[in-house]
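Per reviewer request, we include the raw input and output of the structure prediction for the construct analysed in the revised manuscript.
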Amino acid sequence: MTHGKARACVVLTVLALGGLTLTPVLRGHAADQGVGGTWAFGAQTRDADAPVVSGFAARSPAVYPPPSLPIRMDHARHAALGIACELCHAGAAISVASKDNLLPGEQVCRVCHAIDRTSPGKVVPSGQPPARCEACHLGFLGAAPGTNALQPPEPPRVIVPAPALKFNHKLHVDRGMACTLCHAGVEKVALATTAELPKMGLCLGCHDGKQATARCAACHPTLPDGRLRTNFPSGVLVPSGSLRGVDAHTSTFRTQHKAAARDERTCLACHKQSECTECHGAGVIRPTDFHPMDYASLHAMDARRNIPNCSSCHRNQTFCLGCHQRLGVAPDPEGGQAGRQPNNSFGTGTGVKRFHPPGWVRDDAGVVLTMPTPASHSVQARRSLRTCVSCHREESCLTCHSADPTRSMGINPHPPGFSSSSACKALSTRNQRACLKCHQPGSSALFCD
């Protein structure tokens, strides 16, 4: 055998035994999600004939279920010999489905390795490819002392589950695409694993809707209604955020997905419209785990920022105010009923404690302010009326701001020239019933100039 032929035989055999990288790689591309993986077998002693990698970072297990790799294989050593991928994985050129098994069989290994099942510990002359079983098969004990019987009878086998993808190798090969275009770097690693699979971003370099289809369903399995299948026995497929930047399904995505939801079509590729209305629809019950534990004592800052929007789930005048009144954090009568003040340590409504600074409504002498200051409630109310209604009902405002002299002091909350402003016309046109809270029916104040 010539030196060149011997080198080719070595690569053919070792690739045949340990072609995990090229097998799943040739099977298709995976979603761009780095998920840690572990070996399906215990730690092994490093063998001089073939190095062993102790672990690897796999792609999403939802796309590529974790493989079992009880094998020694050094791709870098054999790629340096110039052996083409298709010499071991010839089936890739005609494969049209990702479920096709492209692992080379033992007959390919026998081209170079003088495998003899009756002699599992077979010794070969120096310089020839090893033929003993344990040179490639991890966890194999070899023959029992004084016998040729294998322990165990069969060495552990490489198992690469079919990926959750649609992929046509033949189509790509026929278009002249080289293996290394998508599977770059495999020639530099020892045991190639799912960590060497191409990322989805690489696939989208061609699948941009112009050179090749950009439909998600072209590669990802779908449900009968056309949505992508996301639940698999090996994991759940979710966006990582590496492509769009705002759709990473992290622990905070449930409450901070507004930016991602602007592209509704992308969301509907996986989700039903009803999933949105389950949380955003009026009168529905929200999931109990929407907020973190002890949120009642932590929600004040979020409520001021309105992130997330409290009113998308809660009604200020019932849910928020009702709770504040029961706890005594609101000065209004409990339940809105006159004479019912909460009896608690806050002391609201009794003058023992106050939540607003001096000059909020009255001056130091107790006289109602006619000219607002930066500390006045009118300034804060314009900034965030939502904060006010978390503790006060409309009746609190009407105590001062009403055109009915029998029920208030008649303090005008509108700025000068309001009746001739566009704001007056807009508010009156939108909902004049709000104006009737302060103005009598038929009053000239109901009509803007």
